[in-house]
Amino acid sequence: MPCTITDYWRYNAADGTAVAIVGAEILAVPDLNTRRYQIGGTGAYQSLATNPLITSAAYRYGRRTETSAGGQYSLVLPQSGESKPSTPAAKWSIVLPDGKVLSGTVPAVSGPLTLDDLETTHGWTWNSAVAVAPTSGTLARGTAPFSAQEYFDVVFGADFASAAYQIKLTPSVDSGTGNVPGHAWETKTASGFRIRMAGEFTGSVDWEATL
User: Fold this and answer.
1) How many CB atoms lie within 10 A of CB 53?
2) Rounded distance, CA 95 to CA 176, Å?
3) What are φ and ψ of residue 70, in 5° steps?
4) Residues 192-203: pLDDT tens digits?
5) How far apart are CA 99 and CA 127, in angstroms?
6) What is the pTM of this model?
7) Phi, psi of 189 (to 5 degrees)
8) Which of 116, 182, 191 is nearest to 153 (CA)?
């Protein structure tokens, strides 16, 4: 059975009351677009297609909703047992309109859960896990910040002509442990790639892609 996430998008007025923002876009993005998911928690496992309702290239395999009256929104996400491959456990990221990202493994409960429930009870963490980088079509470079994360997705502002580009990665030491992290790239496409660390990492990785 999938898990329902329900919460509100509001701001505080001068008198301290909560004011709803209606029509704001909320996204849920899977960690791997190659996973297959059961629809509604049962039946055959199906591959993900790009979502035509999502304009950002970084999030194109995600799910989209909008806040309704009162600023409320709801997303239905598959539990880990409803995806293949099942290991490592699937992670999802909820992307809020101001760019904040909450990421973690969908708990094995039906919900509804709030973002606070996900963070305080189920171990989800706040981060910015996706960067959209400018590119000339043959060269792109940037810095990927990590905060207790295992991966970071880099998405080019414009696709390269092919995925045959070279990637250079230079990580900092972990700011928490002082260790030099193991690292590599994966899922390289003309649209971008993923930086994968050997474990949870807090620091930054300078990267460069050259065709």
Assistant:
1) 13
2) 26
3) 85, 0
4) 888 999 998 989
5) 9
6) 0.64
7) -135, 175
8) 191
Joined tokens for residue 196: 């994968």
State the burial class of residue 41 (Cβ atoms within 10 Å of its Cβ: 0-12, 13-18, 19+): middle
196: left (phi over 0), alpha (psi -120 to 50) or beta: beta
Both tokens assigned to 73? 């929104």
Yes or no: say if 124 and 77 are a contact pair by the CB < 8 Å rule: no
Return all residues near 79 (Cβ < 8 A) that are at least 6 apart.
1, 2, 3, 41, 106, 107, 108
Point out which residues pair with 91 in neighbouring strands: 105
Q: What does the block give as tokens for 19? A: 């004011």
For residue 180, count CB atoms less than 10 angstroms from its CB and return exposed for 0-12, middle for 13-18, buried for 19 or more: exposed
Q: Scanning the structure block, which residue is given the tokens 């509100």?
A: 8
Contact 211, 164 (CB under 8 A): yes
Which residue do the tokens 């297959």 mark? 36
CA-based torsion, 43, 48, 50, 55: positive or negative: positive
Per-residue pLDDT tens over the stretch 131-175: 555 556 678 888 888 878 888 888 776 678 888 999 999 999 999
Token pair listed for 195: 């930086």
